[in-house]
Amino acid sequence: QSVLTQPPSASGTPGQRVTISCSGSSSNIGSNYVYWYQQLPGTAPKLLIYRNNQRPSGVPDRFSGSKSGTSASLAISGLRSEDEADYYCAAWDDSLSGRGWVFGGGTKLTVL
Amino acid sequence: QVTLRESGPALVKPTQTLTLTCTFSGFSLSTSGMCVSWIRQPPGKALEWLALIDWDDDKYYSTSLKTRLTISKDTSKNQVVLTMTNMDPVDTATYYCARIRGGYDPTNYFDYWGQGTLVTVSS
Predict the structure, then answer these.
(1) How far apart are CA A2 and CA A15, in angstroms?
(2) Distance from the A2 Cα atom to the nearest Cα atom in chain B, whole angstroms
(3) Do A45 and B110 lie within an 8 Å CB cutoff?
(4) Which residues of chain B make contact with A38, given a CB cutoff of 8 A?
(5) pLDDT digits (tens, 9 = 90+) for B3-35
């Protein structure tokens, strides 16, 4: 069971806009930045969004992140076949059980 | 170009100690702000942060696993080693190492990851 909650799957057709949600609590998303990672099949996770809504160099502006309260979302517009991957959210967690980074369970995005 | 690569045994027996090595290039762990972390992912489950070592040799561990983990570095070899004692089948996972810049801090994040190495715990 993950500290951050994501839907296990999402799907869309080419050109569509899809969103992936990530739900946490006051000890993680509610008080810290959210990060998103993309993991293409058989490859290492790749940083997609940092500090809620910032894109690293080279990440297309089709990818955007947002945060509100204890939840966050990743939006992908103009969906492309190469976007088919697993997506993970992450945040720092500072609670009675410890301090460190926590992750969502991942969302498998299928491009139909 | 930053790269990281994990290496270690693919199979360990219950109660054994696991030793994994992360060999990296494109940065130095003697540079202020540089850190390397270990993260694991059991099959079909969520990622779990395990440990971090920074440029100043400060070490941080997951609270739930800290009694079993040891992280160390060899700056001259550009390597970070993670040992995990008393391995159990529930520790079966893909183990990743990743770089962080800036230290053990809520504002920092894993910017480069290795491909991961699958470790199976079975007798």
Answers:
(1) 31
(2) 6
(3) yes
(4) none
(5) 999 999 999 999 999 999 999 999 999 999 999
